[in-house]
Amino acid sequence: MTSLQAKTLFITGASRGIGKAIALRAAADGANLAVIGKTAEPHPRLPGTVHATVAEVEAVGGRGLALVTDLRFEDQLAEAVEQTHATFGGIDVLVNNASAIFLAGTPQTPMKRFDLLHQVNVRATFMATQQCLPYLRQAANPHVLNIAPPLTMDAKWFAPHVAYTMSKYGMSMCVLGMSEELKPEGIAVNALWPKTAIATAAVQNLLGGQEAMRRCRHPAIMADAAHEILTRPSRNCSGNFFVDEDLLRDLGVTDFEGYAVDPKAELLPDIFL
Predict the structure, then answer these.
(1) Structural domain contains residue 265
(2) N or C end of the chain, less CB within 10 A?
(3) β-strands 93-96, 143-147 pairing
(4) Sequence-distant (≥ 6) Cβ neighbours of residue 265 within 8 angstroms
(5) Packing angle, helices 162-181 and 124-136, rounded to 10
(6) How many domains does the chain divide into?
(7) Is residue 190 part of a domain?
(8) Is 42 inside a domain boundary?
(9) Per the residue annotation, which of 135, 164, 169, 259 is the catalytic one?
(10) 209, part of any domain
(11) Is the model's pTM score more than 0.90?
(12) 259 counts as catalytic
């Protein structure tokens, strides 16, 4: 399978950034997109809304459904899953992209931030997978893709921000466990992570502003890598911790300049690699 035409994707955090890019790449195939996010109205520091993403999805040939959802609440997520099924008749792909970030040491991490990291990153990933399972079981080529890093038990990735690392590795541990758990049912569970920083609102607002953005790649590289994963046979592609550039290189891609925000700037490596 080389296309996501007529497939239904449920993508969390799809108002902007990587989630939106994955949605638009699938929409170009003619896919159905459930666009999950909290942002219904424009925000001065967070461009994009679920409605704006749906408009772009439909402009490139997909079908969109905007679902304003706070992933911390089980009832809201359950309602989004049911609306997706009612609208499109099923769910073929779940992309657990939504993520909270807070890079601080142990003394500087308020418990409300610790709770948010784990509610959005770990709990919502687990819960979305759990709630989509009944429909994934009915799909012809079911995939779950977590935007999460390879598991590396190296203290250097924990020491600067223990709470954040625990939460992201929690998403990775879902891949490790669920891929084996769901293997008999043919449901693929994989992770994808960027080799270099990606130009997102998190980089703009929290990790260095415009100068850091110059050293990033566009989210399109993650979208192209995700598309490759999600079109593979689910029974033959599960339990992997993919890195975007490495995956695309394995496919024969050699020119990555078009993905760079500024081709002349030195790329900023992402963490956890």
Answers:
(1) no
(2) N
(3) parallel
(4) 214, 215
(5) 20
(6) 1
(7) yes
(8) yes
(9) 164
(10) no
(11) yes
(12) no
**Which residues, at least 6 apart from 243, have a Cβ–Cβ distance to it below 8 Å?**
150, 192, 193, 194, 195, 273
If 0-12 CB within 10 Å is exposed, 13-18 middle and 19+ buried, where does residue 211 land? exposed
**φ/ψ of residue 196, rounded to 5:** -120, 165
pLDDT in tens, the chain (273 residues): 789 999 999 999 999 999 999 999 999 999 999 999 998 888 777 778 999 999 999 999 999 999 999 999 999 999 999 999 999 999 999 999 999 999 999 999 999 999 999 999 999 999 999 999 999 999 999 999 999 999 999 999 999 999 999 999 999 999 999 999 999 999 999 999 999 999 987 777 767 678 889 999 999 999 999 999 999 999 999 999 999 999 999 999 999 999 999 999 999 999 999
Tokens of 128: 């979305």
CA–CA distance, 221 with 197 (Å, rounded to integer): 11
Residue given tokens 């994808």 in the structure block: 192
